[in-house]
Amino acid sequence: MLQDATSSLGPWSWWILGLVLLAAELAAPGVFLIWIGAAAIVVGALSLMFWDTGFWSWQIQFLVFAVLAIAFALAGRRFYASRKETSDEPLLNRRGESLVGRTATLNEPITEGRGRIRLDDTWWSVMGPDLPAGTRVKVVASSGRDLSVEAA
């Protein structure tokens, strides 16, 4: 069946497979199918050149496709891994870490190492030395949803 489809469509079967894989990348993005689709398109281009030669059987085409798909996927992974984009807001989704260095007033006293402060519009659980309510504290660290504070 595969051999019949390949022989009836000729070298265009690889182009169709490549375009289907590229469309699948658009439907389910993950930057993986694009490399396999590119390998299929390259095999299609090679098939246009070598279709009438005796050595370009479907087995060779599949082998070239497999090698190119692996090579393109590894090259793409290396390309995207080397691109380290710096952000103008590096702590955007790490709100607790963005509060380190800020000062606030204790709304609830720290007893047995736990208390609460209000920063901006949020109440935060804090850990630190026992301090009375109304004391100015400085946020020195963040771990998950808890902030570590010390007297300012």
From TrEMBL:
Alphabetically ordered keywords of this record: Membrane, Transmembrane, Transmembrane helix
Cell compartments where the protein resides: Membrane
TM region positions: 33-50, 56-75
This protein's GO CC annotations: plasma membrane
Domain NfeD-like C-terminal: 97-150
Annotated coiled-coil segments of the chain: none
InterPro entries cross-referenced by the UniProt entry: Membrane_assoc_protease (IPR052165), NA-bd_OB-fold (IPR012340), NfeD-like_C (IPR002810)
Record's bilayer topology term: Multi-pass membrane protein
Predominant location: membrane
Name of the molecule in the record: NfeD-like C-terminal domain-containing protein
Organism for this UniProt entry: Xaviernesmea oryzae
